[in-house]
Amino acid sequence: MIKVMQHQADFIQSNYRHTGLVGGFGSGKTKAGIDKTIVKKLMMPNVDVAYYMPTYPLIKGVAFPNFTNALTEYGIPFKLHETDKNITTPFGNIILRSMDNPDLMVGYEVGYSLVDEADVLPKQKMTKVMVNVLARNRAFYQGNNNATDFVSTPEGFKFLYDFFIKKASTNKLLIKAKTADNPFLPAGYIESLEDEYTPEELKAYLEGEFINLTS
Predict the structure, then answer these.
(1) Which pTM does this prediction carry?
(2) What does the pLDDT read at residue 215?
(3) What is the DSSP string of the chain?
C-alpha cells in the first residue's frame, strides 16, 4: 500500500479544474504532484499527460528520479527517454517540459497538466507559461475536465497568490501544507531551517504561507 499524508491525499483526490498544493520545504509537494500525474495517466489510457518544472536541470535532477521511483514502486512498466524528456508506459506518455522558454512549449497535446514550483519564475513569465500550458492541455477523454494543477513553495505574492487568492473561483481549490505535517523528515531538519531563515521566510518555507519576502 502506498502511504500518503492527508494533504497529499486531498490534492490527489481533488477533481477541481485547478488544484494547488502550496507548502513548506519538505512537505511532500513534489511527491503529491508526481503521484497525481501518474494517477491521471492511469485514468486516461492512451491520452498523454504533462509535468512541468522551471528548468531542465530540475527535470533531470528531480523529476526523472522521482518518476522512476514512483513508477517502480507502483509496478508500472516504463521507459525513460532523457533526450526527448518523455516517459512511455503501457497506458501512454508522461511528457516532461521545462518552463524556461515558453515559446518551445509546442507540438503536443495532453489531457492533464501538473506545474511544479510555479512561483520560482517571475510572475510575468509564469503568466505567459500558463497560457501555453492551457493551450496544450486539450486532448479529449470522456469525463475528463482537462485539469491543470500546481505544487509549489510560496515565494511571496507572485503567480500562485494572484491565481488562487486574488482570482479565486469555484473552479479552484488551494490546499496548504506545513513542513511539520511530514512525519518522515529527519530529526533536526526543521531546526536547521529555523537557524538560517528570517521569521518572514519561515512563514513561507515552513508554514506554506504567502508573505512579503522582498521588504
Answers:
(1) 0.94
(2) 61
(3) -----HHHHHHHH--SSEEEEEE-TTSSHHHHHHHHHHHHHHHSTT--EEEEESSHHHIIIIIHHHHHHHHHHHT---EEETTTTEEEETTEEEEEEESS-GGG--S---S-EEEE-GGGS-HHHHHHHHHHHHHH-----TT----EEEEE---SSSHHHIIIIIT--TTEEEEEE-GGG-TTSPTTHHHHHHHHS-HHHHHHHTT--------
